């Protein structure tokens, strides 16, 4: 930079050598000169005002002043024993220098005040004598000399700062003086505690600070800069030089960033005193010039790795020549500091790179701070090198490293609190955010590439080859002694063969510089990881970077982790997800590095002085692993070329690396102890299994399915499952078979619900997986996909490993338990053809054991978090049973699951052991762990009884309830006139409504439906319970249907012909008494009955006469009847065949049904039992509802609108490069913009869910007003839009559902904003009841006195009354019945989940989340009284890489449970699985949010509370008799 300019080194040498010749007293003997100095200086010192009042100087002429200055000049060179005299000399000169100040002291002579610059230059030159080291002085006198030197330096610095009189010549003199004293103090080899050692840092800081002042006041000439550069090269063996260089560089960099990138750029925070380094008034151009010149001041820092170069000065040669043992120059002990100096220089460069990238960390303060300069920490905050040799502990180069922050838990499971706290969810991904406005990578590399690339190669193979080459060239020329141009000193130009490592002391071997090399390669990784989307990096930089990485990633035979390897892994998290050209050539090297760091519990370190956070190292390694997991199946047989080896012997293909990656992942998961790292690994594991399953379904067509039958045998051998024995050798073993290339099969639903749409015969749904065309080459060369790591084997290994660790070491950690259960749920949904039933049974058994263990923990451990894990485990069990219904055919599995359900509902099992006597329900006291646990167990029980093996029903997955209601049934009823079937009130009037168990509404219709011609007692039921609405039709039959249809109508039944002979009837007199009655002697009792005559006498004849008349008339009637019968056709003489009676069409079917099913079995009271006293009426099995109220139909409709499943919405946005406003993003979904989208975006949408027509859809649509309603055939079919991506909810939406959850994917357009504004203005749902019942997040208790909602958590254990143990009936747990007619304040707003496709990855920083919330309203916001906030939203960013893979970025609210699996921040996905994993992640985010909310009510609980609310409003208090009478009444 200054090659054409002359150096001023000769002038410095002349000043240094001639300083002592200035004084005339040098002509006299030393004793005489001393006496003169003592007497003169003592007199001058008395006038300064130090011991007495200052007086004006008596020196009034130039000659007088010059004579005194001659004396003082000699006095400054006196031996240090004359300390007081030297001190007086210093005091005089320091006072006289105030002549340059705005207000000179009174004691300054007049001639000096008149020509201050001239005399100041002489004084500055005379000061040189003070700084000359004296030989053989004691430590005490050296300290005194140092004190005086400090005084002079302070005076000169102060003068330079405040003087307005200094001219350019004086500035040059001052700078040259500072260079000279630094030269004389610092150029010689370091000797501990000499004056140079004590003043080293001070003289350098003054030099640099005054130099910066000169840049403002009098910018130094190029010759001056060249001299500074040459001088610094002579001081590089001093630690303080690099420290001060770093300090100034960072201060200048901070100013440079301010004006180059504006105030929005992250500020570089330096220590407070360093902030004052840059003088006020330095212009921007001056800062830039000064910054670059200072940066180049010490030359190439890699020279510090060559002791021969550093020790080439004459001072070292002089030491070597005078050494008693004839040592070499590079063997001086002070050079043992070179590795530490090199490390500090690299850290300084790294800090500047961090500053340009926007990584302004507080660790930079520690790097530059004055008080902490001896304790230099890493600029990256991750790796800090300790002492590198014996010499590093002495002097100023000692580095004290911070204590290692290793994982606290290495043996045994971590405690719950520490494990959860170890999950800082600021970001699950790779480190700190870079500045948006950061410079391009090329720009940073233009400045630093030369030093960083050279430093990264130090000690590597390339470096050694270059050294050998240089040594060969140097050996061809003889040794010679040359005169060094500078100083005129002698130095030996030795051939580089002497650079042989054998000639170096053991503390200076090249491996001691590894810390600096690690810092350099780490800095390079940071630079390349800062690449933006679409940014080009020069190929030469990429090539040099890849070469450096390959050299640094070479693994030694001892397989130890060195600092270089750790630094690469710590700073390369993003390397494989940035579209770097050719980056995949490094894949084998990185995999080898990951095999060292991740699989082993105890990392093998090369040196124990390495201090870094092992958890952070593992996290960075996991990030790299997550970014390369999908590469083998993506690139398949594409070869990976070796950078250095041109032959193809060592060439890998991508597919060969798959087994190694799988083993790294499995073994890492087995030994990981950190919660966040485990979370990331679990996400990666599901990605791998999902990708393998989908790959085999779509790409291979299941061709290798039949080869893995024996792979299930590996499950019994733990070592086989979890070992990493599957190395390169196993990758080249038996191929998994040639793929079926002919027919390409498409998988249904990937791993979501493989069998759902197959069984729904009435629906035709597209596949939800993407299949790319498969090359023929891949089919022929499918290597590595062995039976060991195909989809089924991975499924077995993953299931076994996760279940084992869940029950052994993860059960106390909330987040890890949730992530493991989410992974197991994901594995359950995988559609693997050869799924092993035994493996699935074992997984369910492990999960049930996990629930039992959690429930059995002691009461202090029962917390909200514990119950959350139990609820999640019940949900996971439901997922396994739904996807594998055959498990319930296994007796052991069924018993295990039902025992766990019983444990969840009641708190205990009926049989703790198999030999125990079962305890019946009515003997047990219900004491579940919490109401949340009981609700989850009830839900699982209902799924087992109603849904396993039957989902989806004929209604399709969009509804688990019947699609029939009263209105639909009445349309098919015979008695209903179609025209009159318009209103639901009329249809409801035909039904009778009863409530049983206070949770189920029975609607009974006694009329047969029109499709039934068989007159039987028929009842049609609509059962509305907590888990949905179901329709049943029942008939009372005395014969099975197979026989009851046969009717016998023969004319002649084949009976004998009757005899028509009429018997003669004998007339006989009727006797009332026996014949001998008259002979019996009457007694008194006989006379108690009066005779007719006595009655006539007593009562008269009228009554008797009337009685006789009645008897006579009756006799006549009987005779006539007999006569008529004899002559009629029905008489025996005219008998006809019997005819069956007419069929009865009038039944009381409702009464029959209720009676037969036991609902009319009224209980009898036991007066002796206090529990059944009159004050406690027995629980009626049946409650009658009054349906005459006009609001009853509306309440039933609201109940039907409460889904029995959870519902969520995901909003999908497409962001083109550079877009930052909501209007631009929404406009991307317009029809005219559809053609410009990334085609993979449309493919991803198709994999998220099934396209459904909102007008025909009966599930969740993303909008509250039209969800869960019975859709008939629309009268006018809306014409479908031409835009295939129009899923905004107006006509179409993407929908997916399983047995417990629904999710809608909405792609908002401008229509959504209009719709939302319309609904919010009109208040479409104004009913207070609807407000409360729709509030799915609230569960509160309303105080009747104040009306305030008191939210209480449902996770506390139940306190039951212990005095009712003798009651036969099970004691129901106390559930708070929140009054659902009153709105309650939300403890937490519903989660908003966004899926954002980014064309440019950096646009996620400017995503207008707040503005887009207006497009994402569902209509439920009206009921929640709390609008969603941007800070509560979860965003899944997806960025398409040039390779066709997708990069994921997660953003969400901070919290312990915010981030769910399987997606992990920074993960790289295949397009095959993106829709499935996004959907699972969205569902898991919502589930976690519900688990974390104390006030959340499960859907079936909300429905039950709504039923109870209907009961309270419409129940009829009927007695038993009134109830029976009600049953006999006909419906209207």
Structural commentary:
With 1532 residues, the protein is an alpha+beta fold. The protein is 43% helix and 7% strand. Helix 20 runs parallel beside helix 23. 46% of the residues are buried.
How many distinct helices? 55
- What fraction, in percent, of the residue positions are helical? 40-55%
* Percentage beta strand: 5-15%
Shape assignment? elongated
Question: Quick check: average pLDDT?
Answer: 75
- Cα radius of gyration in angstroms: 48 Å
For the termini, the CA-CA separation is 106 Å
- Unreliable stretches: 362-366, 368-430, 478-499, 702-787, 1172-1177, 1273-1282, 1321-1388
Total strand segments: 22
Strand order of the largest sheet: 13-14-15-12-18-19-20-21
**What can be said about the biggest beta sheet?**
8 strands, mixed
Gist?
The protein has 1532 residues and is of the alpha+beta class. It has 55 helices and 22 strands.
Q: Which structural traits does this protein have?
A:
eight-stranded mixed sheet; alpha+beta; 1532 residues; 55 helices
Topology:
Layout lengths: L8 H10 L11 H17 L15 H15 L6 H14 L13 H5 L1 H11 L1 H4 L7 H24 L5 H19 L8 H23 L4 H13 L4 H23 L10 H4 L8 H12 L11 H4 L3 H9 L15 H20 L5 H6 L14 E2 L31 H6 L19 H17 L3 H14 L5 E4 L6 E4 L20 H16 L9 H14 L10 H9 L15 H11 L13 E2 L1 H15 L2 H5 L3 E2 L11 E2 L4 H14 L3 H24 L19 H5 L5 H4 L24 H4 L16 H5 L10 H20 L3 H15 L8 H19 L8 H20 L7 H16 L24 H17 L18 H6 L12 H6 L2 E5 L3 E6 L12 E8 L2 E8 L5 H4 L47 H8 L2 H26 L21 H8 L26 E3 L5 H11 L4 E10 L6 H6 L11 H10 L1 E4 L38 E6 L3 E6 L3 H13 L5 H7 L5 E3 L6 E3 L41 E6 L10 H4 L8 H4 L9 E7 L5 E6 L16 E2 L4 H18 L7 H16 E2 L3 H9 L4
Parallel strand pairs: 12-15, 12-18, 18-19
Antiparallel strand pairs: 1-4, 2-3, 5-6, 7-8, 7-11, 8-9, 9-10, 11-22, 13-14, 14-15, 16-17, 19-20, 20-21
Helix pairs in contact: 1-9, 2-3, 2-4, 3-4, 4-8, 6-9, 8-10, 9-10, 9-11, 10-12, 12-14, 12-17, 17-20, 17-22, 20-22, 20-23, 22-24, 24-26, 25-26, 26-29, 28-29, 28-34, 29-34, 29-35, 34-35, 34-36, 35-37, 36-37, 36-38, 37-39, 38-39, 46-54, 48-53
């Amino acid at each position: 930079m200054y090659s054409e300019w002359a150096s001023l080194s000769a002038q410095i040498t002349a000043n240094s050598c001639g300083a002592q010749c200035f004084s005339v007293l040098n002509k006299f003997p030393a004793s005489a000169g001393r006496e003169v100095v003592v007497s003169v200086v003592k007199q001058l010192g008395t006038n300064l005002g130090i011991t007495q009042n200052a007086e004006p100087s008596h020196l009034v002429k130039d000659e007088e002043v010059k004579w005194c200055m001659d004396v003082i000049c000699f006095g400054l060179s006196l031996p240090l024993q004359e300390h007081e005299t030297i001190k007086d000399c210093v005091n005089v000169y320091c006072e006289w220098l105030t002549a340059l100040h705005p207000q000179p002291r009174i004691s300054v002579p007049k001639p000096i005040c008149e020509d201050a610059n001239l005399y100041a230059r002489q004084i500055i030159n005379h000061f040189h004598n003070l700084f000359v080291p004296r030989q053989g002085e004691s430590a005490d006198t050296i300290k005194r000399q140092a004190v005086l030197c400090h005084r002079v330096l302070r005076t000169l610095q102060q003068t330079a700062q405040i003087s307005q009189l200094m001219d350019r010549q004086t500035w040059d003199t001052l700078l040259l003086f500072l260079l000279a004293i630094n030269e004389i103090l610092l150029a010689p080899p370091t000797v501990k505690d000499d004056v140079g050692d004590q003043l080293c840092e001070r003289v350098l800081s003054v030099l640099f600070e005054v130099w910066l002042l000169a840049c403002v006041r009098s910018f130094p000439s190029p010759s001056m800069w060249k001299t500074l550069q040459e001088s610094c090269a002579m001081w590089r063996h001093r630690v303080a030089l690099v420290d001060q260089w770093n300090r100034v560089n960072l201060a200048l960099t901070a100013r440079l960033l301010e004006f180059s990138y504006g105030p929005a750029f992250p500020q570089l925070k330096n220590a407070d005193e360093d902030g004052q380094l840059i003088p006020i008034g330095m212009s921007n151009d001056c800062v830039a010039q000064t910054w670059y010149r200072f940066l180049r001041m010490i030359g190439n820092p890699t020279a510090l790795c060559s002791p021969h170069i550093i020790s080439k000065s004459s001072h070292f040669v002089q030491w070597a020549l005078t050494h008693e043992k004839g040592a070499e120059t590079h063997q001086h002990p002070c050079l043992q500091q070179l590795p530490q100096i090199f490390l500090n220089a690299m850290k300084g460069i790294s800090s500047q790179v961090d500053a340009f990238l926007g990584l302004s960390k507080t660790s930079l303060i520690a790097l530059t701070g004055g008080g902490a300069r001896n304790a230099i920490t890493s600029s990256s905050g991750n790796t800090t090198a300790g002492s590198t040799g014996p010499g590093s502990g002495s002097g100023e180069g000692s580095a004290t490293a911070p204590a290692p922050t290793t994982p606290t838990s290495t043996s045994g499971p971590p405690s719950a609190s520490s494990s959860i706290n170890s999950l800082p969810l600021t970001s699950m991904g790779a480190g700190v955010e870079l500045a948006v406005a950061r410079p391009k990578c090329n720009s940073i590399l233009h400045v630093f590439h030369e030093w960083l690339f050279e430093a990264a190669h130090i000690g590597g193979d390339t470096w050694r080859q270059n050294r050998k080459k240089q040594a060969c060239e140097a050996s061809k020329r003889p040794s010679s002694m040359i005169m060094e141009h500078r100083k005129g000193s002698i130095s030996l130009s030795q051939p580089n063969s002497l650079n042989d490592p054998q000639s170096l002391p053991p503390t200076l071997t090249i491996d001691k510089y590894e810390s600096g090399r690690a810092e350099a390669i780490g800095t390079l990784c940071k630079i390349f990881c800062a690449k933006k989307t679409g940014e080009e990096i020069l190929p030469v930089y990429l090539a040099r970077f890849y070469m450096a990485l390959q050299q640094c990633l070479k693994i030694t035979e001892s397989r130890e982790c060195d600092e270089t390897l750790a630094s690469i892994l710590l700073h390369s998290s993003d390397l494989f997800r940035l579209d770097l050209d050719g980056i995949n050539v490094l894949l084998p090297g990185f995999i080898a590095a990951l095999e060292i760091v991740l699989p082993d519990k105890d990392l093998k370190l090369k040196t124990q002085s390495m201090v870094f956070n092992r958890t952070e190292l593992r996290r960075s390694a996991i990030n790299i692993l997550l970014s390369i997991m999908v590469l083998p199946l993506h690139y398949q047989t594409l070869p990976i070329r070796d950078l250095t080896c041109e032959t193809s012997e060592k060439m890998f293909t991508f597919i060969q690396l798959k087994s190694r990656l799988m083993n790294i992942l499995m073994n890492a998961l087995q030994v990981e102890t950190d919660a966040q790292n485990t979370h990331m690994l679990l996400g990666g594991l599901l990605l791998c299994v999902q990708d393998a399953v989908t790959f085999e379904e779509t790409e291979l067509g299941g061709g290798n399915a039949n080869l893995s039958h024996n792979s299930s045998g590996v499950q019994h051998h733990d070592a086989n499952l979890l070992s990493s024995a599957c190395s390169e050798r196993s990758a080249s073993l038996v191929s998994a078979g040639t793929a079926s290339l002919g027919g390409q099969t498409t998988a249904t639903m990937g791993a979501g619900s493989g069998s759902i749409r197959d069984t729904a015969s009435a629906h035709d749904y597209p596949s939800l997986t993407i299949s790319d065309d498969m090359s023929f080459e891949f089919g022929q060369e499918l290597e590595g996909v062995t039976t060991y790591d195909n989809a089924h084997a991975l499924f077995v290994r993953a299931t076994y490993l996760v279940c084992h660790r869940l029950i052994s070491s993860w059960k106390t950690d909330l987040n890890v338990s949730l992530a493991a259960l989410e992974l197991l749920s994901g594995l359950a949904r995988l559609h693997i053809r050869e799924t092993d039933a035994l493996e699935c049974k074992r997984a369910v058994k492990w999960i049930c054991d996990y629930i039992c263990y959690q429930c059995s923990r002691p009461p202090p451990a029962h917390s909200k978090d514990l119950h959350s894990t139990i609820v999640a485990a019940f949900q996971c069990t439901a997922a396994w049973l739904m996807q594998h219904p055959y498990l319930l055919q296994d007796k052991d599995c069924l018993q295990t699951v039902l025992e766990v359900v019983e444990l969840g509902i009641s708190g205990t099992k009926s049989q703790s052991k198999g030999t125990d006597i079962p305890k019946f329900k009515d003997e047990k006291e219900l004491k579940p762990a919490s109401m949340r646990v009981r609700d989850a167990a009830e839900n699982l029980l209902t799924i087992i009884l109603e849904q396993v093996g039957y989902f989806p029903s004929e209604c399709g997955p969009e509804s688990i309830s019947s699609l029939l209601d009263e209105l639909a049934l009445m349309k098919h009823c015979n008695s209903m006139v179609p025209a009159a079937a318009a209103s639901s009130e009329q249809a409801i009037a035909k039904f009778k409504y009863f409530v049983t168990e206070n949770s189920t509404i029975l609607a009974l219709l006694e009329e047969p439906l029109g499709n039934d011609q068989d007159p039987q007692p028929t009842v049609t039921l609509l059962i509305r319970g907590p888990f949905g609405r179901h329709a049943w039709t029942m008939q009372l039959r005395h014969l099975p249907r197979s026989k009851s249809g046969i009717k016998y109508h023969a004319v002649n039944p084949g009976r004998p012909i009757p005899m028509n002979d009429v018997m003669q009837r004998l007339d006989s007199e009727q006797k009332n008494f026996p014949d001998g009655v008259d002979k019996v002697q009457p007694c008194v009792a006989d006379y108690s009955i009066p005779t007719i005559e006595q009655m006539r006498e007593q009562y008269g004849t009228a009554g008797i006469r009337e009685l006789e008349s009645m008897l006579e008339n009756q006799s006549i009637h009987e005779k006539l009847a007999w006569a008529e019968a004899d002559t009629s056709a029905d008489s025996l003489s005219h008998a006809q065949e019997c005819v069956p009676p007419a069929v009865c069409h009038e039944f009381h079917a409702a009464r029959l049904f209720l009676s037969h099913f036991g609902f009319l079995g009224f209980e009898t009271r036991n007066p002796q039992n206090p529990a059944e006293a009159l004050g406690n009426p027995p629980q009626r099995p049946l409650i009658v509802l009054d349906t005459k109220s006009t609001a009853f139909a509306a309440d039933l409709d609201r109940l039907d609108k409460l889904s029995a499943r959870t519902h969520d919405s995901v909003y999908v946005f497409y962001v083109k490069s550079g877009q930052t406003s909501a209007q631009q993003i929404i406009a991307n979904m317009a029809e005219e913009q559809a053609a410009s989208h990334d085609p993979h975006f449309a493919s991803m949408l198709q994999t998220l869910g099934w396209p459904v027509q909102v007008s025909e859809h009966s599930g969740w649509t993303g909008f509250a007003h039209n969800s869960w309603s019975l859709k008939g055939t629309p009268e006018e079919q809306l014409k479908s839009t031409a835009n295939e991506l129009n899923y905004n909810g107006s006509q179409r939406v993407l929908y997916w559902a399983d047995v417990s959850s629904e999710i809608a994917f909405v792609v908002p357009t401008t229509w959504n904003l209009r719709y939302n504004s319309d609904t919010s203005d009109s208040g479409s749902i104004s009913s207070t009841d609807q407000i409360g019942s729709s509030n799915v997040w609230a569960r509160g208790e309303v105080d009747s006195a104040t009306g305030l909602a008191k939210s209480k958590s449902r996770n506390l254990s139940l306190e039951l009354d212990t005095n009712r143990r003798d009651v036969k009936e099970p004691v129901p747990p106390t559930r708070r019945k929140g009054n659902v007619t009153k709105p309650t304040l939300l403890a937490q707003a519903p989660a908003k989940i966004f899926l954002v496709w980014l064309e440019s990855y950096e646009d996620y920083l400017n995503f207008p989340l707040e503005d887009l919330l207006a497009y994402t309203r569902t209509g439920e916001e009206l009921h929640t009284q709390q609008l969603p906030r941007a800070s509560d939203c979860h965003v899944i960013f997806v960025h398409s890489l040039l390779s066709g893979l997708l990069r994921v970025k997660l953003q969400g609210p901070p919290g312990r449970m915010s981030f769910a699996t399987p997606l992990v921040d920074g993960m790289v996905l295949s397009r095959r699985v993106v829709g499935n994993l996004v959907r699972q992640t969205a569902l898991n985010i919502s589930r976690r949010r519900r688990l974390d909310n104390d006030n959340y009510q499960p859907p079936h609980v909300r429905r039950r509370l709504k039923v109870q609310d209907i009961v309270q409003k419409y129940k009829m208090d009927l007695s038993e008799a009134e109830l029976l009478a009600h049953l006999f009444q006909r419906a209207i």
